[in-house]
Design brief:
Layout lengths: L1 E9 L4 E11 L4 E5 L7 E5 L4 E5 L4 E5 L7 E5 L7 E13 L2 E10 L2 E14 L5
Antiparallel strand pairs: 1-2, 1-10, 2-3, 3-4, 4-5, 5-6, 6-7, 7-8, 8-9, 9-10
Amino acid sequence: MICRVKGTIKNISQEIILNEKAIYNESLQTLTWQENSALQGMTTIDFKNGEIRRNNKELKMILTFAKKKAKILNCKLPGIPGIVSLKVKILKQEISKNRFLLTYETYLDNEKIDLITIALEYSKENSTN
C-alpha cells in the first residue's frame, strides 16, 4: 500500500522533518521510505521483528527495539572503520495503527552519547497527492 509518512527524527544535534511517500507492506509488516532530506537515505521499520534500518550519507544502522531482544544499535559511521555497536536504552515506545513513537538513548562504554526520538504517523496516500 502506498502511504504518506509524516513526523520527525530528532537527536541532540539535528531534527529531520519527514513528509514522504512510503510503502507499507501488510504481510511483512514493514514501512519503507526514501528520505528526501540532505541525507538522501532509505529507512525501513520492521514492526514484526522490532527493527529499524537506516542507510544514508551519515550512517548505516540497524536498531533493535523488539521487547524480548537485547537493545543494540549496530552502525557504520563516516571516518570510523568497521561497525560500531552501541547499547540502547528504550525510554518510550508506542506502536499503534498508523502511529510509531520511539525515544531511546545510546551508550558507548557506559557513556551516554545521544538521545533520539522518532515520531511518525502514516496513512494511505490520497490519489490527489
